[in-house]
């Protein structure tokens, strides 16, 4: 089965020529971008819904409607209410306006607010993973967000026992371990495993 190409991780902002090429794919300049033949899609939610329809044999959504709704909500808490606050331009602005530590302190507050909401939302639905014992859409958003919270922003996960527990379960899965930024082909040498 042909696997679409996905630009995901490092490399943004480091090489002017590469950036110019990348902006042709996504004028906003953000990763990820999926290229599948003639199809070019930027935005992780759009990409995952496209893959959901393209490969229905590996569905990312539970069968019942309520579970699907919870997956959409959890995914969107990450991609609309947490992740945008961590982007480079925002952090740079906060640092310039408010001082050297303001960027991460502020990002941590946004993460903690979103994680508190996720803990409440998922408490009645989680199993081994966010919404049961199978990996679904919500998990694909939660895994990188929790990883970034721990490693980059040093969020204390003792406050979020459910998220901490499911993150441990993600780390047992080779597909999740292989998706870590340091394992990507364009990861700078100093970040490689
Ligand atoms: N809603 C978009 C957001 C994309 C986004 O913000 N990507 C971040 C990395 S996770 C990025 O490219 N940041 C570069 C920057 O901050 O300049 C999505 O989910 O794909």
Automatic annotation (TrEMBL):
Annotated InterPro entries: Glutathione-S-Trfase_C-like, Glutathione-S-Trfase_C_sf, Glutathione_S-Trfase, Glutathione_S-Trfase_N, GST_Zeta, GST_Zeta_C, Thioredoxin-like_sf
Signal peptide residue numbers: none
Superkingdom of origin: Eukaryota
Limits of the GST N-terminal domain: 1-59
Domain GST C-terminal residue range list: 64-189
Record-linked CDD domains: GST_C_Zeta
Family under the similarity heading: Belongs to the GST superfamily. Zeta family.
Protein name: Glutathione S-transferase zeta class-like isoform X3
Gene label: LOC113727920
